[in-house]
Design brief:
Elements lengths: L2 H16 L6 H8 L3 H5 L5 H20 L9 H17 L10 H12 L1 H27 L9 H22 L2 H17 L3
Helix pairs in contact: 1-2, 1-4, 4-5, 4-7, 5-7, 5-9, 6-7, 7-8, 8-9
């Protein structure tokens, strides 16, 4: 792993624990085992690091959460697999994100303090909701959902349930509570099927 990758990896850990604003340049440099010169050889500023770290965090999110979705037999199974991956492969990743989901941490912290950075984070949330809605629309077209089910409403329930499960898990670190929350979303989805 080269220095740039080390700085990004260590900054993601620090950002997940302390937030972007609460993490100092000194913290980042110390954790990465480098100097200011080493940092500035790879990043123009702390915001430049934020953007590159966000790209890496999104890549990690996709690798963990989209794992095996292509093998699912239908759109409902894809959503169920996504929910299971979110629980079992992403949220429990305390080695990379010891403080919890980096996107939620950034979103809460940066909304008022650095809205231009919060907008970058929101792009991922918008993408996740669009993916859930697309899969639910595909399920509707395939006749897998009850006619009375609103795909927009189910999208909101699943999306907000995922975020709520993440926040609760970050606060309590209870695997049991995390399983209950995600299992409730899966049950809700199952009960929406035709």
């Amino acid at each position: 792993m080269d220095l740039k990758e080390t700085i990004i990896r260590e900054s993601l850990k620090l950002f997940s624990l302390n937030g972007f604003i609460g993490t100092s340049m000194h913290d980042i440099i110390t954790a990465a085992g480098t100097s200011k010169g080493g940092f500035y050889n790879h990043f123009a500023s702390k915001e430049d690091l934020f953007r590159k770290a966000l790209v890496q965090a999104r890549k990690m999110w996709r690798e963990r959460n989209l794992y095996g979705l292509d093998n699912a037999k239908d759109p409902i199974e894809k959503i169920k697999r996504l929910l299971g991956n979110y629980r079992d492969r992403y949220l429990i990743d305390s080695s990379n994100f010891p403080g919890g989901c980096i996107f939620i941490i950034f979103s809460v912290e940066l909304g008022d303090q650095r809205p231009h950075l919060a907008k970058e984070v929101q792009k991922g949330f918008i993408g996740l909701k669009a993916m859930l809605n697309r899969l639910l629309d595909e399920a509707r077209k395939a006749g897998l959902l009850q006619n009375s089910v609103s795909t927009a409403a189910v999208t909101e329930i699943l999306f907000n349930g995922m975020l709520g499960a993440s926040i609760n898990y970050s606060a309590a670190k209870s695997a049991e509570n995390l399983h209950q929350a995600i299992d409730a979303l899966i049950d809700y989805l199952e009960n929406s099927k035709a």
